[in-house]
Amino acid sequence: MDLSSDEEEAILFLALEDEENGRKKGRKWVHEINLERQDFGEFHRLMPQLRQDKKRFFLYFRMSSFLPLETVFSTIGHSFRIGFETVSAIVREVCQAICRRMENIYLPEPTRAIWEKSAKGFEDIWRFPNCIGSIDGKHVTIKCANKTGSQHFCYLHKFSIVLMAIVGPDYRFICVDIGGYGKNSDGGIFENSHMGQRFEAGLMNIPEDKPLPGQIMFLLVAKHLHLNLILCVPSLIGNQKLILVKENYNMRLCKARRVVENAFGILVQKWRIFFRPIATKVETTILIIKTTCILHNFLRIKQNPSDKPSQQSVLRQLQSDPRRTTNLAFSIRGTIC
C-alpha cells in the first residue's frame, strides 16, 4: 500500500512519541524535594526554634553533628533536604577538620609526662601503682566492606573493625589504633599495629622503672593481652583460697583493668552512631571512630574538668577461672604484695 508523504510523517511522529513515552525518566540533578529546602528543611524551620531552647536542642541532637545520632545518611538527607552524597561529603569534611584542629590538643602523641601523670592517677584513684594505662580492643560493628571476604567477621558473628585503645585513670584515651580486622585476636592486632610495634621498639617514651619497695617496670593492664609490657589478671585456680593480701591485689588489678571497658561504655552511650552498623567505606569509618575518640576526650575535659571516677567497688567477688595466667602476673603480684 502506497502512503502519501503526510501519512508517513504522521506515522513517524507517532512512533517517535511512543518511543519517548517508553523511555525512563532520567535522574534530576537536584531532586524536587530538595528544592524546597529553605521552606521545609529542618535547618531552616526547626533549628531556629531549637536554638532558643538549650534543653530541647541537646535533647534532639545530643550535640550538633551526625556522630551522636543513631541514624543514616538518607535520614539526614531527607530531614535537611540535601543530597545523600552531600551528607556523606559533609561528614567526612567535618571529621577531617576536627582531627586536623583538635588531635594534637586532645589526643596527642604520648610523652613521658603523660605516662607519669596517668601512673599517678591510677595509684591515687584506683590504688594500683606503676600502671600507665588500661588497654583493650573494642569491636565496632560495620557493614561488610566490598571485596573483604571474612576478614572483618569476628567471633561475635558480625562484621567489625577493632578500636585498640589505652585509657587513663580518668577514662580519657591516651593512645588509639583503629582499623584492625575483626577476625584477629586483640593480642595479634596489638602486636601488628603501629602502636604495638612502637612499644616493642621502645619508642613510646615509657618512664624508667620505679621502686615500690621492690623495683618493677611501668605496665599496662589488660584482660587477655599476653605480651611483655602487659599485665593480665591472675586467675583463681579451682577452689584454691588465696590469702587476703593476694585477693586485695587481684581486686585492685581488676578495677584498674575495667577502666578501659568503662571508657568504651561512655563512648558508645555518647556517640550513638555505634548503636548500629556503620555503613560507610572503611576509610571513612576509621575517620569517624577517631573523631569520636577526640571529641570524647574534649568533653571529658570541658564538661567534667574535676571529674574523678568513683572508688566504689566495681568487683563484688572474684570468680574461679580454670585458665592459667602468665608467670609474669604472679611474679608482679608477689613483688607488690
Automatic annotation (TrEMBL):
Q: Which cofactor does it need?
A: a divalent metal cation
Q: Which UniProt keywords apply?
A: Hydrolase, Metal-binding, Nuclease, Nucleus
Nucleus as a keyword? yes
User: Which ranges carry the DDE Tnp4 domain?
Assistant: 135-297
Is Hydrolase among this UniProt entry's keywords?
Answer: yes
The coiled-coil regions, if any, are none
Quick one: where is this thing mainly located? Answer: nucleus
Q: Where in the cell is it found?
A: Nucleus
In its UniProt record, a GO molecular function of this protein is: metal ion binding
**Which Gene Ontology terms of cellular component type are present?**
nucleus
Task: Identify its protein family.
Answer: Belongs to the HARBI1 family.
Q: What is the protein name stated in its UniProt record?
A: DDE Tnp4 domain-containing protein
Species for this entry: Aromia moschata
